[in-house]
Amino acid sequence: MSKHTPPRAYFHVHHEQMWEWATEPMENRIEYIKKEKPTSEIDTRLRLLKEIPYERIKSLVDTKGQYDAVQRTAWEQYEAVERTAWEQYEAVVRPAREQYEAVERPAWEQYKAVERSAREQYDAVQRTAWEQYEAVQRTFDMEALHRELCPDCPWDGRTIFP
Ligand SMILES: [Zn+2]
């Protein structure tokens, strides 16, 4: 139903509701019923769907019309205030965000460059020291040493609880 036409009430727009206010032109609902509802339901739905005469619910229609007008105006006022508040928020936050990004990006690049270099230095020192240690370790026969120094040992090469 377009915004400024008076409200119209119908019986049995939907099968689980006795009556309701139309929210769109009833031709749309009728087309939908004809196209989408099970064939066995269509005749019944179309037979029972009917407008409630204005003369029988005059004060209800009028009151609903007044409600619609008040609601519409109040909503438009809300939207106008909300839109302005949002624009003010964005006006403050957008430049701050852009400024933050402009500062943050080069600072991050700087951090990454220093970190990468420090890490490469660590890797090089660590690798050299480990190679020196391993060269010495290879000169020891730990298997033979274990057989000698750990008699009656259940160690099977994998666990002491075989
Ligand atoms: Zn052992």
Total number of strands: 3
Helix/sheet category: mainly alpha
Mean pLDDT, all residues: 96
CA gyration radius, whole angstroms:
41 Å
Bound molecules: zinc ion
Strand % is under 5%
Walk me through this protein's architecture.
The chain has 162 residues and is mainly α. It has a domain at 1-52. It is elongated. It has a three-stranded antiparallel beta sheet. The protein contains four helices and three strands; from the N terminus they run E-E-H-H-E-H-H. Bound molecules: zinc ion (ZN). Zinc ion binds at residues 146, 150, 153, 155.
What order do the helices and strands come in, and which of them pair?
Blueprint: E1 9-11, E2 19-21, H1 26-36, H2 39-48, E3 50-51, H3 58-137, H4 142-149
Antiparallel strand pairs: 1-2, 1-3
The protein binds zinc ion.
Short account of what is shown:
The chain has helices at 26-36, 39-48, 58-137, 142-149; strands spanning 9-11, 19-21, 50-51. The protein is mainly α and 162 residues long.
Keywords:
single chain; 162 residues; mainly alpha; three-stranded antiparallel sheet; 4 helices; elongated; binds zinc ion
